[in-house]
Amino acid sequence: MLDLRKLRYFLTVAEELHFGRAALRLHLAQPPLTRQISALEAELGFRLFDRTSRTVTLTAQGRSFLPYARGVLEQVELAQVIAGKLAAGTAGQLALGYVSSIVLSDLFSQAIQTFAQRFPDVQLTLVECASGSLGAQIADGRLDIGLSRLLPQSTDVRTLSLGEERLVAAVSSDSPLASQTMVSLAQLSTYPLILFPADYGSGLNQSIEQLYRHHGHPLRPGPTGRQITSIIALVAAGQGVALVPECTQSLMNKGVTYRPMQEVDACAQLLVLTPASTRNILADAFLGVLEQALHTR
C-alpha cells in the first residue's frame, strides 16, 4: 500500500520542481526528502523525476502518475472534512417519514428547504407513510423522525406536538355548499364523507370522527382515497365532501371549492415522532428547524 506521506512529498516536489524549495515547504531537510522520493520510486518501479545538478523535471511516467496521486490526496482531505462534519452532526443521512395530509403544508416545505440549505452534506430521504405504520417505523429504526397526526401506540416513540391545523370543507363546486361563506358539520353530515381507508390508520380520520361524535352529528361514509390528492379528486368527481387541513387549498383542482368550518374546534393535530431510546443529532437539528419555522409563521 502506498504511503500517503510519500505521495504528499511527491506532489510537493512536482509542484516546485526543486528539492530544496520542496523541503522548505515540507519543513524537512533535503536529504530525507530525497530518500523518501527514491523509496517511492522503488515501490512504484519507475522513476518519477529526472534530476541533474541544476534541474528537476518529471519523467513521462511521473507526469502520468501525478493526477492519480493528486486525486488520492484530495479524496483523503475530503474524507477528513466529512469525518469532522459527521462527528459534529452536520453530515450524514436522515430518513424523514410523513403522512400525505402534511406534505402540502407550508411548514413542511419551509422546513425541508431550510434544512437542506443549512445542512448541505446531509442526504435527506423522504418517505410517505400511513399514520398507523409511521410510529412502528420510527420505533424499529427504519425512520429517524416522522411527521404525523396520530399518536403512536408504541412506548418506544417520543411524541412532540407542533400544534393544530384548521380543517376546511372541500366540496364540489356545483354543490349548494360552494355558494356559502362558511360550512357547518350539520350541513356536511347530509353528504357522503370521503376519508382515508379504515385500515390505513389515519390520524386525520381519527380527528374527523372525534369531531363528528363531539358535535353529535352522524357521519355518512363515502368512498376512500389513500392520498390527500385522491380524496380531492373524488370530491371534484362529485362523490362526496371531505374535511381536509387548510394547507390542502393549495391543490386548486377544477371542480373543487374550499370553505372554512363554523366549528372552532375543527382541527387536526400535527405531531413529531422520534425514537424514545436513542438521540439522533440530525433528527434534533431537523426538529429545531421545524420549531424555528413555526415561530416565524
UniProtKB/TrEMBL annotation:
Transmembrane regions listed in the UniProt entry: none
SUPFAM superfamilies, alphabetized: Periplasmic binding protein-like II (SSF53850), Winged helix' DNA-binding domain (SSF46785)
Domain HTH lysR-type as annotated: residue spans: 2-59
Any Pfam family the entry gives: LysR_substrate
Keywords, in A-Z order: DNA-binding, Transcription, Transcription regulation
GO MF entries: DNA binding; DNA-binding transcription factor activity
PROSITE patterns: HTH_LYSR
Database matches in InterPro entries: LysR_HTH_N, LysR_subst-bd, WH-like_DNA-bd_sf, WH_DNA-bd_sf
Annotated GO CC locations: protein-DNA complex
Family as reported in the entry's similarity comment: Belongs to the LysR transcriptional regulatory family.
PANTHER family referenced in this protein's UniProt entry, alphabetically: HCA OPERON TRANSCRIPTIONAL ACTIVATOR HCAR, TRANSCRIPTIONAL DUAL REGULATOR HCAR-RELATED
Protein name: LysR family transcriptional regulator
